[in-house]
Amino acid sequence: MGAFPQILLALAVLAALGPSLTNAMIAVGVSAVPVYARTARGSTLSVRANDYVEAARAIGASDARIIIRYIFPNVLAPLVVLATAGVGISILIAAGLSYLGLGAQPPTPEWGAMLSEARTYLRSAWWMATFPGIAIMLVVLASNLLGDWLRDVMDPRVVI
């Protein structure tokens, strides 16, 4: 979603904070901030240029009223859709960090750590890696489908 991959930023944050589940959650959150900031800024600039915002300004509406009444509702829809897609990306990043040993530490159960431990048993106990992988896939797929549905519901140009 940007020029700098989120997982690299998360790795840099974890390198500074150290491996733990709390630090992994902080790293995933910090790595997602630029995506939301860029989207919010772009949407705000786009909405601010619309005629109805200029009309509200022309009749003397205050900046606070314009932001609350016109800009915020139109900026919120893309951010909500992005957030649902971001859930899937965040799950993949957290699982990747745990796979590398930087997320949740044993004995805390975590899908990425389960996949990492299952590597050694892949030939004899394939299900140890298969089921956590399927769980990750299903949760990310559900998050993406929810995001698609929300995009369709919140987009005024789409007729359902």
Write the layout of secondary structure elements.
Layout: H1 6-17, H2 21-48, H3 51-58, H4 63-99, H5 111-118, H6 127-154
Helix pairs in contact: 1-2, 2-4, 3-4, 4-5, 4-6, 5-6
How would you briefly describe this protein structure?
The protein is mainly α and 160 residues long. It has 6 helices and no strands.
Can you tell me about this structure?
The protein has helices spanning 6-17, 21-48, 51-58, 63-99, 111-118, 127-154. The longest helix is centred in the middle third of the chain and has 37 residues, at 63-99. α1 crosses α2, α3 (51-58) runs antiparallel to α4 (63-99) and α4 packs parallel to α5. It is 76% helix and 0% strand. It has one domain. The chain has 160 residues and is an all-alpha fold. It starts with 5 loop residues before the first helix and ends in a 6-residue tail after the last helix.
Identify low-pLDDT runs.
none
Gyration radius (Cα, Å) is 21 Å
Based on secondary structure, the structural category is mainly alpha
The major pleated sheet works out as: none
Total DSSP helices: 6
**Helix percentage:** over 70%
Total number of domains: 1
Order of helices and strands: HHHHHH
Q: Overall pLDDT, averaged?
A: 90
What is the straight-line distance between the termini?
28 Å
Strand content: under 5%
Number of strands: 0
| Coarse shape | elongated
Defining traits:
160 residues; mainly alpha; elongated; single chain
